[in-house]
Structures are given as structure tokens and as C-alpha cells.
Amino acid sequence: MYKVKIYGAGSIGNHLAYACRSKGWETVICDVDPEALRRTREDIYPARYGNWDPEIQLITPDKLPDKDVDLVIIGTPPDTHISLALSVLERNPPKALLIEKPLCTPSLEGAKELFDLAGSTGTFVCVGYNHTMTDNTRRAEEILAKNIIGTPISISARFREHWGGIFSAHPWLAGPQDTYLGFAARGGGASGEHSHAMNIWQHFAHLAGMGRIVEVSAMMDMVDDGVVKYDRVCFLNVRTEKGLVGDIAQDVITEPAEKILRVQGSEGFLEWYVNIDGGHDALRYSDGKGGVKEELIPKTRPDDFKGEINNIESILAGKTGADSPIALNKGLDTMMVVAAAHISHNCRKTVKINYQAGYGLDAIEVL
Questions:
Q1: What is the CATH number of domain 131-299+324-366?
Q2: What's the Cα-to-Cα distance from 284 to each of 119, 273, 293, rounded to whole Å?
Q3: Which of 294, 290, 270 is nearest to 282 (CA)?
Q4: Does residue 187 contact residue 101 with C-beta atoms inside 8 Å?
């Protein structure tokens, strides 16, 4: 039985605690706020999963025992991720460390240090872009591998969702001003919170053998009322190392939500959907010769995290290596695109990412 320590008793901490407990793993949730721990025990967890699991230990940092664990999960606000991750790796590195998305802020502060330290400790560090591990993604990978749609020509990804659902899941927050979500510089806004779109675009580009995103042209709609400052809309046009072009749209205003990726091929197309209805993800695809095929894939909200935790279980067992879709380098690549998008928007020009220069702002050049 693996031992797990989770930092952060918010929504993601509860989701991942449930996923770990579904495996029978020994789980501790730590939070600086005793009220957050109370909400977990009395409200969030039992409301979502039927009842509280008394096997989960709830604790504040000052009472946290300094013992070895197999997996550490960081589910705190993104502007605390890297400092906390560095502390974990320096003090008592676990076998695996999962950091919730987005990995850090658009400043990329500490990103290179984290990458270097992770390599020296031997800890497998990964980032919580769980949509790369869901059943609809695995099925899409099978379809692409069979070359049904021909050679991919372009990819379009959209994660457009009003963030009212986020605040419904966090009723103790009155609005974006009460959390990092209202501050793009802290990792919030559409570019950070819905960076799943950038990441899943990158995932499918890798599947197509087209490399990483190296050019970004972005436009954002910024909200700045003197209290909050965030992008409510984030549009990107991108190009990869091998010339694949496409677009990415993220926002916090669209209702009902739209979460879709489309790969246009030389012979047909593939469309990938998240939450096409209340109980399914979906795929639509065609080889261009016959009709369009549609597959509905049953899923519940906890299912969104099962593939991620299964992958980490394989990592802990030594069965999965650096090719994991949620590996640290993949999450850092996504953060480079987030940072590039902000720079592109601010200067109103296309920017280029030079990955050889490392994970920092110095690697982003204005064209």
C-alpha cells in the first residue's frame, strides 16, 4: 500500500484524495487553514462521494509528521507550487511528486530550478494535466495510430467554460477576487486555469510527430478593475517545430461549456470532446470516404482522475518512464506557451520559444 501526502484541502485535493483512497492508499491531507480541513471532512468529500472516509488523516503543517511517503501531491494555488515542490525535493524527496496545473505563474520563476532539481533527486515529477490520460484520449490515440484520418494537417483546441462552476464547487469564495483565479500573474485567468487546451493540443501534436510549439501569436481580453486583473479570453495561433499550425481558445465566460479538440487530417478528421453531455465524453471521426462515426464514452467526474492516478501507480511500480504524458517536461512545455501568450499579447507580436535556452523567460523571443 502506497503512502500519499496531499498539500491543499481544496477541490483538487479532495478529488485526488478520493482517487488515491479508491486504490486503498494511505492518505494524508495537509492544509494551513483548519477551516479548509473542516470543509473537507464535513462538506466537500461527503457531498461528492457519499460519506467521509475516516481513514484519511487531516492535519495542519505544524503537526505534519516528517516521515517518508511514496507520493506527494501539491494542490495549493499555482503561485505556491514551485516553492513548495522545491522544499519537498530538498527535504525528503518522494518516489513521485504530482503538481496540479498550472505548474507555476507566467513569470516562470523557479521553473528551471525545479527541472534541474527533479533530475538530480530521481523523483518522478509530473503535472496534473489529467485529460491526457482519460479514456476518450486513449481511444483517440488508437484511431490516430491506425491512420484513419490520414496525415494531420492542423489542430484546433477549445476549453471555453464559464467559471461559475468553479465557484459552485468552492462556495466559500465570493468570486475571483478571493482567489488566485482573478489574477493572471498568480496563475489564474483563462490562460492558466484552462491551460488544459494548450496541453491537450501539445499532446496531440506529439502524437502526430510534429514536435513542440515554437511560435505563438496571442490576443487576450483582460479584465482590470483595480481589484482583479485576469484574462477572461485567451486566443492563440501556434506553429510547431515541424511546421504544424493550429489554434487554441480558452475563456472563463462561455456557457454552456465547450471542451473540444479537432484534428484535421489529409483524409478525414477526428473530434475529441469532454463532457459532451452529463455522463459522457465523446469522439467523432471520419476517413473522408464514408459517414461520420460517433463514440460516446461513459464517465463520471471521479473518472477524470483515474487515468492520472493509474499512471502514477505505474510510475511508483517502476513500469512507466519519462514518456508519461504528465511528465514534468510536458507540463513545463505548456507553461512556456502560457508565458509566451502573455508576452505576445502585451507586445502585440508573434514570439518564438527556444527550448534550448531552458525553462525561463529568456527563452522567449519577440519576432
A1: 3.30.360.10
A2: 39, 8, 6
A3: 294
A4: no
